[in-house]
Write a structure and sequence with these properties.
By secondary structure, this protein is mainly beta. The chain has four helices and 25 strands.
């Protein structure tokens, strides 16, 4: 009986300790955990350092529901970035403290950067929106170099928050990592002096790794330059673009949808396009192909000359500036700017929008009810992959027949203009003899 009682007490104690909860009573706490100290202090030179880097808070923090197994899937492991390197560090939870240490130990004469990113929670699930960084050197002088820039989603034309930043120091190939803030900006300081390859990844799954379909881009920063500028990330594919769909756009153009965005600077001449009817091989007379964003900026909807002119209603004519060969506006080179020179939501550069659609224009109106075969050569994706030839077909739909069965019947209930005098209703209650006598006595 004593053994059963001890086992039950131990079981209840284990269940009670397995899940942490805020203490009962008292006013609700809506404040996130606040950092009060770090060990060691940031921006310091520590020869022979072999301890743990600790972040201390003013209250008990949540350990999370996913434990830390050293593979980067734990809730606390996702919040810690240890640089240089891409390995998952050892992360330990001590109620009000988080301790971090590399699995292979600290290397001598190396500048380390330990960042605790935004997202730390307390027991009441209050989330911290500030990051904490500890930077120190295990030998030699502490560097003073700084890298700053901004991550931009090219497809969305907006700054991207929580993007992964990887700065590779050349030629040592040491990778320093960080994440962007809510405005898409990052600032890494202090950093070793040298040339860097800065890679921005739009980390959609927040696993601090670059997946196959995530957008990214890399820029080279020369030694002595700290302003990275805006890095416009986009999806890349090693395979050339392929056709997904071909659809009629209007009487003078068709739209080809591809598997990846088209290079905005792409211009395809008429001699690289074949567009013929499938029945009699009649040439449709292609005049060129453009990305949809560029095409829409060069052509405007035509004003119909007549109400029944269907060709004028659905065709597009070039604008006044389209007759001249107007090149697409390419983004200017990255120019360092002062911190805070632009508003938080304003981009410093202006680049054309990305599109997965290519518009092919022809000289003569397309014949309804005809199927055309389209072949386009030299289609280049924004990532640089080029398709030697893409092939598809499209059928131009016939116009809907006019409904001639419904006729408007004349309204016989309406009065004519001549019939405007109101007449008294006939007297059906007085006998006829009385009515005749009254008519005789009525003065004329």
């Amino acid at each position: 009986m004593r053994r059963l009682t001890r086992a039950a007490v131990a079981l209840f104690a284990l269940v009670g300790c397995a899940r942490m909860a805020p203490p009962p009573g008292g006013p609700p706490d809506a404040s996130p955990p606040r950092l009060i100290a770090t060990i060691p202090e940031s921006v310091a030179v520590l020869d022979g350092f072999d301890g743990w880097v600790e972040f201390q808070f003013d209250e008990v923090i949540s350990e999370g529901s996913s434990p830390n197994f050293g593979i980067g899937s734990g809730d606390l492991e996702r919040l810690v970035l240890l640089s240089p390197g891409n390995e998952v560090p050892r992360v330990a939870w001590h109620r009000t403290r988080i301790a971090v240490k590399p699995r292979g130990g600290w290397r001598p004469n190396t500048v380390y950067r330990v960042e605790l990113v935004r997202g730390l929670r307390d027991l009441r699930q209050n989330v911290s929106d500030t990051a904490a960084i500890v930077t120190f050197s295990t030998g030699g002088a502490l560097p003073t170099h700084e890298l700053s820039g901004r991550a931009v989603d090219w497809a969305g034309q907006r700054a991207f928050p929580a993007a992964l930043v990887e700065a590779m120091l050349l030629p040592d190939s040491l990778v320093y990592r960080s994440v962007t803030d809510s405005a898409g900006r990052f600032r890494m300081h202090p950093m070793p002096e040298g040339e860097y390859l800065v890679t921005i990844t739009l980390d959609q799954d927040h696993n601090r790794r670059r997946s196959g379909r995530e957008a990214w881009d890399t820029v080279r920063v020369r030694s002595g330059i700290g302003a990275v500028g805006e890095v416009w990330a986009f999806q890349r594919d090693t395979l050339p673009p392929r056709i997904v769909d071909v659809a009629p756009r209007d009487s003078l153009s068709i739209t080809i949808t591809l598997t990846q965005p088209v290079d905005p600077a792409l211009r395809i001449a008429a001699d690289a396009i074949i567009m013929r009817s499938q029945d009699d091989s009649l040439d449709a007379g292609p005049i060129g192909a453009l990305p949809r964003a560029v095409h829409d900026s060069l052509y405007r909807a035509a004003t119909p000359r007549a109400a029944n002119d269907s060709a004028a209603r659905d065709s597009l004519v070039p604008s006044d500036s389209a007759a001249r060969a107007r090149p697409v506006r390419v983004a200017p080179p990255l120019v360092p700017r002062r911190e805070g020179a632009t508003p938080p939501d304003t981009l410093e550069q202006k680049r054309p929008s990305l599109s997965t659609q290519l518009v092919v224009r022809v000289r003569s109106p397309l014949v309804p009810g005809t199927r055309y075969v389209v072949v386009v050569r030299g289609v280049r994706a924004v990532g640089g992959a080029v398709a030697d030839s893409i092939r598809g077909s499209v059928e131009i739909p016939k116009p809907a027949p006019r409904d001639t069965t419904t006729r408007v019947r004349p309204d016989t209930t309406r009065r004519t203009p001549a019939d405007t005098t109101r007449r008294a209703p006939a007297d059906t209650t007085t006998p006829p003899s009385v009515r005749e006598a009254a008519a005789v006595r009525r003065p004329r």
